[in-house]
Fold each of these.
Amino acid sequence: MTIANQLTLLRILLIPALILVFYLPFKLSAFFSALIFSLAAITDWADGYIARKYNQSTPFGAFLDPVADKLMVAVALVLLVEVHGSSWFAIPAVVIVGREIVISALREWMAELGKRATVAVSSIGKIKTTCQMISIIVLLLFRPGVNVYMTALGYITLYGAALLTLWSMVVYLKAAWPELNPNKSDH
């Protein structure tokens, strides 16, 4: 078990901690929820860095890392949809989670065709992830009604992440289109 894989497993173990702390009835639950999610975001960056720098990439890590990322983000967005309780929040949350499902299925399908590199992570995806992490941390920390400016910042970065999510999905689908298009001329 490599250090990178241990960090990925830690991220998964932080999910129930996030849920538990989010619902605890004490004043600092928002702070500790944001802290737990921040720790998960740091481990997301650290496990990839360590795996590359120290050649610790493993098939298990390659499988588990994106699963851990998607689970943590989806759980955090579901928790936040509950407290924000509006379509203005639900729409970007659904876009982000829905895109992850579509792209995961696309990557799996392309891998079966031996063309996984066609839908590899792009720089747009890295910017999207950064916006997502910032928005979720801000919105976990500043629950509705606490600070209107920080909530606005959280919404703006969430919408930025949702737009980048759609953009990156279009880029991935465009790259995979020759395999998806049944009318291509070489078959």
Note: The helical segments are 3-23, 29-53, 59-84, 87-112, 123-141, 148-180.
Amino acid sequence: MPPGLLTGLADPQLSRTLTALHEAPGEPWSLAQMAQQAGMSRSAFAARFKAVVGDTPADYLAHWRLTLAQAHLRAGRSLKSIAHELGYANPSALSRVFAQKLGMSARDWREAVDEGR
């Protein structure tokens, strides 16, 4: 099976962390906290997560948070209203990650989604 979420959920230790990340994406997750959820050392957890899921734990969490942000934006919410619940210190921080990972601002993304409807 190729790396990904399903492969990670099939791993008994990683599944605990993945479930926790999905249930509480806004928590201030550190590598140490994620590894603790899995009952592993940080280095062993990071290596296994990357091998099994295909992303680093931090990248996976950022992508999950952005997936949620996109859903909230589609529903008409603003970055200001979702930033804290998704674990960002402020809307600017979420905006920077959005542009870094998706290659466009949240505003441009939202306009593209609206044009596609």
Note: The mean pLDDT is 94.
Amino acid sequence: MPHIDYYFTPISPYTYLCGVRPAEIAASHGATLTYRPADMIAIFARTGGLPLAERHPSRQDYRAQDLPRRAMVAGLPLVAKPAHFPTNPAPSSYAILAAQDAGGGDMAGLVFALARACWAEQRDIADDDVIRDCLSAAGFDAGLADKGLLAGAEAYHRNTEEAVRAGVFGAPFFITDTDQRFWGEDRLADLDAHLAGRI
């Protein structure tokens, strides 16, 4: 059975633009999918990337044009400058990890709900109430926002270390069990084609 490791941060607009497509692609090929939220700022620092505010103006200008276009392609609403960006993605990442361990809910729905909360609803995904709402909406115990914080922090750190070792340098990033790597929401079609044996 094929497997995909999905490295991401819930604060990334490109994670939001993925929607639930990673899970749909995995399911269509009988593949398993593991959600691996990681500290992208730490990954940037170790792989030559820069936080948004430190990027060259040309890169920032391109991103400002690219995001609305990608949102239109994905058919999703997007607030280009949301009220709570940037914010700390760690609390929502810990909740994602706790939910994945607990099982019983809609993981794709949870990841999408947290990213949507920032990029379409202008909510702060570092806020416990927002995290609880997203957990509940995805069929998980809202109390997961408060449970296993130490375990979540440890798993978040492990994911970050594993991401660097695996060659991750941005988000979203998909790695198959055959070490084929796909960076970016705009490479989901390539991931799909690879799993289908077309590329």
Note: The beta strands are 3-8, 32-37, 173-176, 181-183.
